[in-house]
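Here is the promised in-class demo. Please do not try to memorize the tokens; focus on the logic of going from shape to residues.
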């Protein structure tokens, strides 16, 4: 007899639904206020095309968390601000004047949309987690990182 596959095969989705159901049954709210918001914060990946659109709309602050030498050696996504991963937590807690002096940009507010990038998505995920823990609930990360960005940009230039 053919066995039916379970409807929910994505473990992250199952965890999200389970957490939502548990919170709803107990009447408790997540630390972010509602169980729905809790689940929406679990997946914060941004694709190349989404990042390109966000950069064009100027609706984000893109923070590259690679080391400064990596940016000098390999380049950066236009419009990004370099804040190395080991500085992210401190930077996001600086007063606005200090942030502007050190990074040359206005300090983002907790409601601003932040996207973190790195070489290949590992450090940017850590930076995003740090930002969310500090109350920057609109933080995301570009999972493809500089490696993917360069590949797409070269491909797009060849097609032009």
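The designed amino acids, position by position:
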């Amino acid at each position: 007899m053919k066995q039916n596959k379970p409807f929910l095969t994505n473990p992250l989705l199952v965890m999200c639904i389970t957490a939502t159901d548990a919170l709803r049954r107990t009447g408790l709210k997540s630390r972010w206020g509602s169980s729905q918001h809790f689940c929406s914060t679990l997946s914060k990946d941004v694709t190349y095309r989404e990042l390109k659109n966000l950069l064009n709309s100027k609706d984000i602050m893109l923070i590259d968390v690679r080391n400064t030498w990596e940016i000098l050696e390999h380049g950066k996504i236009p419009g990004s601000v370099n804040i190395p991963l080991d500085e992210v937590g401190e930077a996001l807690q600086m007063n606005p004047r200090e942030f502007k002096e050190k990074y040359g940009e206005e300090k983002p507010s907790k409601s601003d949309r932040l996207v973190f990038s790195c070489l290949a998505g590992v450090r940017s995920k850590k930076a995003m987690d740090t930002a969310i823990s500090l109350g920057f609930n609109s933080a995301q990360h570009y999972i493809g990182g500089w490696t993917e960005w360069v590949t797409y940009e070269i491909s797009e230039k060849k097609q032009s």
